[in-house]
Amino acid sequence: MRKIMVLGAGDLGRRVFHELAHATGERHVRLVGRNAEVTLRAANLARFCGLQRGRTPRVDHALTDLTDVARTAEQIAAFRPDVLFLAASYQSWWQISALPEAAFQRLYAANYGPWLPMHLVPTLKAMEAVRMADSEAVVVNASYPDAVHPVLFAVGLSPHLGIGNVANNVPGIRTAAAAQLGRHVADVDVRLVAHHYVSHRLSRRGDSGPARMGLAVLCEGRDVTATVDVPDLLRRLPGEYRRTGGLPGQAMTAASALSVLEPLIDGRDAEVHAPGPGGLVGGYPVAIESGTFRTLLPDGMTEEEAVAINLSGQRHDGISEIRPDGTVVFESASMGVLTEELGYACDVLPLAEAEDRAAEIAERYARYRARVTEQVGVAG
Prior knowledge:
Blueprint: E1 2-7, H1 11-21, E2 27-33, H2 36-52, E3 58-63, H3 69-79, E4 83-86, H4 101-108, H5 117-132, E5 138-141, H6 145-153, E6 161-162, H7 170-181, E7 188-193, H8 196-205, E8 214-219, E9 222-223, H9 230-235, H10 250-266, E10 270-275, E11 283-289, E12 292-295, H11 303-316, E13 319-322, E14 328-330, H12 332-342, E15 348-349, H13 354-379
Parallel strand pairs: 1-2, 1-4, 2-3, 4-5, 5-6
Antiparallel strand pairs: 7-8, 8-9, 10-11, 11-12, 13-14, 14-15
Helix pairs in contact: 1-2, 1-10, 3-5, 5-6, 5-13
């Protein structure tokens, strides 16, 4: 029986846990969260939904707080998962979308890079627990792997693979390409190289903006990119192929997570899209082969060229550089947005300072949210 631990009982963790619990095959799925009531209810919901459908899933739950590395390590060591899915963040990406519209638009202009400590720190603590537990689990991370993984790779603590981001637009691109080619979508595949910045922009603007991306379109395994109108294809993503976003749109991210997790759990080979493989920056097509990973790039593209494409996206996401020791240098324009809105400033972030910076962002953001919400209430 394969064992899967979902570490993090937020919206995404609960969605993925629910789906994993109801799949066929011999599995033991454990949800680990910090809130006893939320985690218990989510585990029972998965169990009872399975019974309602005539299944008897083996699911259970446990409790830990990622700030307690030793306790988390105990949970990992006791369960001994084959696959560990990290779904933990101090501030999920969708939270600023719940702000009043004007405040959301101002913060949205910062892009994602300046918020890095909110995703880096819980992943770091989880990986410290994995090491302390001497776990051999394949670790898959949901929290900004495009940037978190190369930072943690510098200290030997990167998860094996990420999920989401680059993967989230692949179904739409395949669908649009199939329509152009007059083929069934099952005949069409793509190989997309793109950073989080580009992935985020594609679904909203239908282009990569000032950043670079790499795209190959394949039909029955043959590269037909030259016969496809790529700009027109991409423009259709926020048009006729637009999809639900925000918190409800996490269904797409959960599906992207399952596209990676299911082959690992089932022990089968697959071609997927994923960010941060082996600590690389940005997102790539990835081949899963016997539980190992390798990039599966468009024909003629080297890994060095793919990394350069992703570094372009990284800069536009607000990160100038990730140094070999894991120190992060931020783009001044992006950080300037957080300085103006939250009063937060950080030009250079050594890894040792990430936890304090995450606490500072959390405190300043809480005050900001209260202030802008009150202002809208008064104005109303």
